[in-house]
Amino acid sequence: MGNDVKVGLISCSGEEIAEGTLSRAAVRIVLEKLRPLQTVTICLPLFLAGDGGERAFVERYPTIAVDGCGKRCAQQGTEKYSGKVDDVVVIDELLEKLGEKAPASRRDFTEKDWELAEKVALEIARKVDLVLAKAAQEGRAGTAGGAPLPECSCSSSGPRTVSVKVQGKTLELVALDGIFSLVSKNGELSDGERGQELARQAGIYNAIPEAISSASLGEALLREYMKGRKK
Amino acid sequence: MNMPRVVVIPCSGIGKPLGTVGRQATYDIVEKRCKETSTTTCLALLVSGDDEAVRLVRENPCIALDGCPKECARKNITLAGGLVKSKLRVMDILKEHRGYKPESVLHIGEGGEKLVEALADKVEKEIERILGEEGKDHGK
Prior knowledge:
The complex is a heterodimer of chains A (about 230) and B (about 140).
Chain A: E1 7-11, H1 18-34, E2 39-41, H2 44-48, H3 52-60, E3 63-67, H4 73-81, E4 87-90, H5 91-98, H6 111-138, E5 161-166, E6 169-174, H7 176-184, H8 191-205, H9 214-230
Parallel strand pairs in A: 1-2, 1-3, 3-4
Antiparallel strand pairs in A: 5-6
Chain B: E1 6-10, H1 17-33, E2 38-39, H2 43-47, H3 51-59, E3 61-66, H4 72-79, E4 83-89, H5 90-96, H6 109-139
Parallel strand pairs in B: 1-2, 1-3, 3-4
Helix pairs in contact in B: 1-6
């Protein structure tokens, strides 16, 4: 099975309950540690609010919803707006099955809570493997020939940095995907204005050295932006 | 006089440490600093159209805490018919405190915790301001 097959993990991340914090932590553990090459995540509020790219992903790729409680916002939201999820983990049900209690705090996890998050993550990873095996059997494609991977401006698979050369210096910049997406929505801009806006936005999300002029940064980012548009 | 509670809603963006910062600051506000005057709800629940969550944001002033330019918290409160009295972007707080860099999504570290504190300071002030205005309105 190639690394181009990805499973989308959609976490409810519910702020009201500790199980929401647990769902978020467990999904991050899967993304960062257990199955970094096979999984991506999608911001649920962004997905539900109607981001086309993210919805297209769920329509084409296998997906697992990770919900904190029986309201199942992640599963139901996904199925309402896009397609049937391939599997679901409901944290409170899983905890009952494991004979575990939810963390006492929504904010600060104890060592025992982190161990619990690892246990939940293992369960999600097990389901990722099953979903991928099934997808392979059915010949469902991953990214090859399919929709682009979801790029929420949170950088779905962890922080993605892009190296951009400006005035002879190489800058490692974050949040460019989100910035490019934002600027692309403004069709009224001339190239010069677009470069200025790209530089302005990049300055919000990155510490740009003082020696770098805004004009040079704008030109470099505009080149990157145009490269992306041609792909 | 029945004073409203301010509803603080972070985006909790799962891909970025700034989402964690907004989330942690929300807990500091609703659990410690402004226990009696603020509350929160699940953003996904609100977006799903849950009656109780929708009623909460329609009947109370809201503060949106967003981790990225897509402003999911602000947009979704507005879409639900809620009134966003204040919108704060975590990145703007980071710009004011460039040394407070959060380390990772799961473990924001010391810098991240300082950023949480700076954001919570701002949210607390906003809550006081909003409730002050609400008090004036109630007194009319």
